[in-house]
Amino acid sequence: ARALRLLQLPRRAKRARDVRWLLDALKATGSLEYGRALEVEYSERALAVAEEGLPFLRANDDWRFLREMLNYVIDRVK
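Structure (tokenized):
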């Protein structure tokens, strides 16, 4: 309940100690690691789908941008 109340506040209304509490809670429960693992998994899956099922994207700048963005996410988290 405390976390939900904090998240509903506008950024400027949040106190540093409450934000620190929330960050510590996220770390303690493994939420950050879980989120990072999902980030990598979904990025890798998106790359695989695009490579196998969307070959028309390979030849344009949009595909190159998407691929580089997904690779950045994967490399940054690992």
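The first helix runs from residue 2 to 8. The two ends are 32 Å apart (CA to CA).
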